[in-house]
Structure prediction request, 229 residues.
Amino acid sequence: MKLSIGNSLKLAFRPWVEGLEHVPAEGPAILASNHLSFSDSFFLPAVLDRKVTFVAKAEYFTSPGVKGKLTAAFFKGVGQLPVDRSGARGAAEAAIKSGIEVLERGELFGIYPEGTRSPDGRLYRGKPGGLARVALATGAPVIPVAMIDTEKIQPPGKVVPKLMRPGIRIGKPLDFSRYDGMDGDRFIMRSLTDEVMYEIMKLSGQEYVDMYATAAKRQLAEAAKRREE
Prediction:
């Protein structure tokens, strides 16, 4: 199913790709990407020969009706794993556990260090918990990835995507073996995450904002509410 979905996406949108040679032909690796659009988790797997697994909200797999079944089949087809996000801490732990399991099988694991989609196309501070813990627990190399223009194809709230070419830049793998045995050190986790975010920034050309995207979304929502009052 991944093959048919991937081929359909490539035919319809013709994404351009740079750096495919940096994705290993076998063995575990973490693909750490910026996050501009709901469609990011579809375009990246579509251009890779290997399966890459992301985690997704459990609601995408349990919605009722025909639409719900189609959505669940689509997400399973592109390698998404359901994670219950009803509790923030529990969801984070489940995502980390899933990532470790994927990598221990020798597969590719995809993660968005920002934790959520960018609200304005800029690159936000990476959250150290998920990416760093998975990388340090497994020793897998981290491959920085930049999605280009996907927010123009499917902005938040838009159901029907616009037909245009997105881009994907894949950077050289980053080796963090120098941090072996330091997975409990919050300063090491912060340093690792910041290094990955810097490489993503160079690949994407995005403006970097030293705050979390979740905080930026709250500020935007509060500003919009004040304007309505």
Remarks:
- The beta strands are 16-18, 29-33, 52-57, 80-83, 108-111, 123-124, 142-148, 167-170, 208-209.
- The longest helix spans residues 186-204.
